[in-house]
Amino acid sequence: MQAFLDVMSLALCQEKCRACREDLKIDLVGFLSSPKHWKQVNRSTLCNSCFFKLELEPSSLRIVNNQGMAPLIVASRLPYAGPLKKIIYHLKYDDDRLVVEDLSLFLSQALQDLGKMVRVNDCILVPVPLHWKRKIKRGFNQAELLANRVAYRHDIRIDTRLLARTRPTATQHQLGKEDRKLNVEGAFQAQRKYAEGAHVILVDDLLTSGATLSSCASTLTDNGALSVSAITLAYAQVSKGGKTEKVRNLETTSIEKLD
Ligand SMILES: [Zn+2]
User: Has residue 242 got a pLDDT over 50?
Assistant: First the structure.
């Protein structure tokens, strides 16, 4: 009987796990007992094995300190490791956009964490922009796709006009600490007419040293933004002595007190 169910589930489901590329099996018993359950299974982009390897953290607030720049609060729940690394890679380089909906759920959790310190409904989501040449080559900006889903789910404004990347930059996580800072220094330009008076939440796929987010934040505040914080899908583990530290027990501290 089990063998029959396995064959049927594979025949019905053409989808593969977005991380390990194994066939996703459908829980046929669940499907027959509850169509709603079927819908949930059908939307899943990870097999059980990969899903349970994600190390989702219960709390996600961090402060990014980059020399000469204001501290920035960033919420990010997942370490950049294991299956998540593969999924983000497939999204960016294999155009695997099916994962966006599910990945955006993790960003929604980060947004809820940020909501303990920032009035998120007064904010505008601003995806970290790609340089236009890279966006044309890739066909999309993954941060923008993710931010769109979060904006829709939480009924928050999203605006891509506030910020532009004015020169191409190398991928941050392959660079050393100092090079990361130099790589993004002066790489962004904000439009004052949209940034002025805005409370901004930057959205990106990955937090490394925070140099990119800090550079975006200082450009926005120089152009009149009242506050800037950020959510990212994942964070890269920072070696001891790095500039990213976990924020603990700050639920009752206001954002102003952190400056
Ligand atoms: Zn898998």
Answer: no
Phi-psi sector, 183: left (phi>0), alpha (psi -120 to 50), beta = alpha
Could you tell me the distance, in angstroms and rounded to a whole number, from the CA of residue 79 to the centre of ligand 1? 17
Domain boundaries, given as residue ranges, for the chain: 2-50, 56-258
CA of 240 to the centre of ligand 1 (A): 31
Q: Which of 120, 143, 119, 117 is nearest to 130 (CA)?
A: 143
Position 167 pLDDT exceeds 50: yes
Where residue 157 falls among pLDDT bands split at 50, 70, 90? Answer: very high
Lowest mean pLDDT among 68-77, 128-137, 155-164: 68-77
Residue 41 has pLDDT above 50, yes or no: no
Q: What is the mean pLDDT of the chain?
A: 80
Return the CATH architecture of domain 56-258. Answer: 3-Layer(aba) Sandwich (3.40)
**Which pairs from 98-102 meet CB under 8 Å and 24+ separation?**
98/18, 98/45, 99/18, 99/45, 100/142, 100/145, 100/146, 100/149, 101/43, 101/149, 102/43, 102/44, 102/45, 102/46
> For residue 73, how far is its CA from the centre of ligand 1 (angstroms)?
32
Tell me the CA–centroid distance for residue 243 and ligand 1, in Å: 33
- pLDDT given at position 51: 81
Provide mean pLDDT across the span 18-35.
66
Task: Tell me if residue 20 falls in helix, strand or coil.
Answer: coil
